[in-house]
């Protein structure tokens, strides 16, 4: 906050008010902080601005909520009394008193408009202490309902009247025909309500049945689809098994045909006379006739290579296999019965 001096009195420093922004001497500021919660300089707002702020707040809708004009901390009763004018403080005092006694549990204002209020004993269970004699206007009023005292009714009866005015008045009138008509009207209303509830229940049952039917149809379709999938899978397995069986049958036929051909060949060899010795191949048992040449044989029928001993033909025994890469002289046999 800026400080300055005037030309007339160089020894009196001035301070700028944070509210009106005017420069004032220290005497125009509060001598201490307005509240203990104020953290600012005690001479931040001048006394004129403090008084004006209190006056505006007291004449507002919440006259008891007075605050510091600088930091808005709540002001105590003594601070308001020290800085407010007489009319403002009297209004503030009345508002504070009204707030205090209103917050008390055993105090009530007269609802008949006289502006008076008073303390009284607590109410009891049957409401006999709800009747209050106002000390201001000398009239009786009901503290519980805040109306003029209902001398013809108890508080419980008045509650019944507030809950159902027509029914209460009919019962009090004692007219049996009107009571009967009212009872009939109530019964008719109850029947209509029951019919409405029944319609709602019936509609709910109908919805439940429709939903159950939809669920059953969906389950039926799902079962049908599952059966169709199972049928297709079984058909595919059956076809695969038939194809595998046919493949095995063809393989067996081919093997039987080969055995028959071999048997026929062996029979042909057995029935044929050879001028040279004939021996079976050690690999595929095909008959080989050696008429001379190399001792190294490669039979292309089974790609089996062997070396025969000079005594094999006509004596007939093998001496073992040899490596094709290390043998320069090779006799290749291309048929079941070939001459070397």
From TrEMBL:
Residues 237-256 are annotated as: Disordered. The keyword Zinc-finger applies. Keywords: Membrane, Metal-binding, Transmembrane, Transmembrane helix, Ubl conjugation pathway, Zinc, Zinc-finger. SMART domains: IBR. It comes from Diatrype stigma. This is RING-type domain-containing protein. The chain crosses the membrane at residues 297-319. One of its GO terms (molecular function) is zinc ion binding. InterPro entries: E3_UB_ligase_RBR, IBR_dom, Znf_RING, Znf_RING/FYVE/PHD.
